[in-house]
């Protein structure tokens, strides 16, 4: 790392920023274009741009270290407090009270560092208590007998002084701990932790390094895990790991100086936030209406499994399982819904045999939608990210459940 603080260029979602041609080296601009075109639209200096760079964040927020000396900070268009509230729901962190003190963070990078400090500190605490261990089956040629002897191997090679044994080893080198090791390794390489927190992260990694094998882990391994009385505290650790692993992109430079970007896909986060908010209020709001919720339902079309839909959200009758509403979240604010989005949600409704299809936006549209296509009613509704998220959620549900075809509230 350079002794000089890196230059940081800030971009806000969907707001273009123009920079003089001399402000970005050509090699850095090319790296950004080649590796992060999905996150940032890059227009090179040309007559069309007035011989300036034109950079536009495409609905992602976070931090991209292009070189040790040149970084991009992608800022959210929503209030930071509400972004953190979305992350709480999306990663099932709301029940952990330590997050209450994090809402005074001044930036997403600050939140990342503070959360990294919490994870590293809890790993160190678990290390002092002893990391979770399990018995794993192993087969090994040994100079002594351990466990069960492979009799066939002994008979076939009577001259071999080593005996093949099948046994179980009590070890901490299990996936529960490998997830922690890989996560803190990624955090240490992010370049987002200051010298106040980085030593704690490194201590947590070095503590695990002597016990587990460093293996790449995907965020999916943190989901749906089974816990028992010996490792129940790993539930929180893995929830935090999932957050970091889903936001850590690939490093495009190899070597000790490479750094990992930290990127949040706001469209995906919005989709997950809406789903998790509904699940969190299922008993108090949905069940009294006789409804249950399913998220990311995969529905195969035709005889084979080559064609399928992944439906964002389905509200279904608790008793019969019949779909009452299909919802598709759209993290964008057009003037009116796009024809392709309408066709998509209609296809979802047809596939589920449902008569209510809803497009969900983070802000009210200038031209809201309430039409019928055959027997299917299609509406555009708002789960707002401005103001209080809880109140916005209740208003959204009221619009979903209690609005008739004329747009009037049903008493």
TrEMBL record:
Pfam families linked: McrBC (PF10117)
Alphabetized PANTHER family for the sequence: PROTEIN MCRC (PTHR38733), TYPE IV METHYL-DIRECTED RESTRICTION ENZYME ECOKMCRBC (PTHR38733:SF1)
Name of the protein in its database record: McrC family protein
Taxonomy of the source species: Bacteria, Bacillati, Cyanobacteriota, Cyanophyceae, Coleofasciculales
């Amino acid at each position: 790392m350079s002794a000089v603080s890196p230059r940081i260029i800030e971009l806000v979602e969907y707001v273009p920023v123009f920079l003089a041609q001399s402000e970005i080296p050509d090699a850095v601009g090319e790296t950004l274009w080649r590796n992060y075109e999905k996150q940032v639209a890059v227009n090179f200096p040309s007559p069309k741009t007035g011989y300036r760079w034109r950079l536009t964040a495409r609905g992602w927020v976070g931090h991209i270290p292009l070189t040790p000396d040149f970084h991009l900070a992608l800022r959210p268009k929503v209030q930071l407090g509400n972004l953190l509230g979305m992350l709480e729901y999306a990663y099932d962190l709301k029940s952990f009270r330590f997050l209450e003190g994090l809402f005074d963070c001044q930036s997403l990078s600050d939140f990342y560092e503070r959360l990294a400090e919490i994870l590293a500190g809890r790993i160190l605490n678990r290390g002092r208590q002893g990391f979770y261990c399990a018995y794993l089956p192993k087969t090994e040629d040994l100079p002594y007998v351990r466990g069960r002897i492979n009799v066939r191997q002994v008979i076939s090679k009577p001259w071999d002084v080593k005996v093949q044994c099948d046994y179980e080893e009590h070890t901490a080198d299990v996936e529960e701990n490998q997830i922690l090791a890989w996560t803190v390794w990624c955090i240490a390489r992010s370049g987002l932790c200051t010298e106040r927190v980085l030593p704690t992260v490194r201590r947590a990694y070095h503590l695990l390094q002597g016990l587990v094998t460093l293996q790449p882990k995907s965020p999916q391994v943190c989901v749906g895990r089974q816990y028992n009385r010996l490792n129940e505290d790993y539930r929180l650790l893995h929830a935090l790991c999932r957050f970091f692993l889903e936001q850590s992109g690939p490093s495009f430079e190899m070597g000790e100086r490479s750094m990992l970007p930290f990127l949040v896909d706001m469209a995906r986060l919005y989709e997950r936030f809406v789903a998790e908010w509904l699940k969190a209020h299922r008993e108090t709001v949905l069940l009294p209406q006789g409804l249950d919720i399913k998220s990311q339902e995969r529905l195969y079309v035709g005889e084979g499994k080559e064609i399928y839909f992944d439906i964002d959200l389905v509200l279904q009758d608790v008793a019969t399982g019949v779909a009452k509403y299909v919802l598709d979240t759209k993290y964008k604010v057009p003037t009116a819904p796009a024809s392709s989005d309408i066709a998509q949600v209609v296809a979802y409704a047809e596939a589920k045999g449902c008569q209510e299809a809803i497009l969900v936006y983070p802000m009210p549209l200038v031209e809201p939608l309430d039409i019928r296509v055959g027997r299917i009613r299609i509406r555009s509704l708002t789960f707002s990210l401005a103001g209080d998220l809880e109140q916005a959620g209740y208003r959204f549900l009221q619009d979903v459940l209690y609005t008739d075809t004329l747009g009037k509230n049903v008493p």
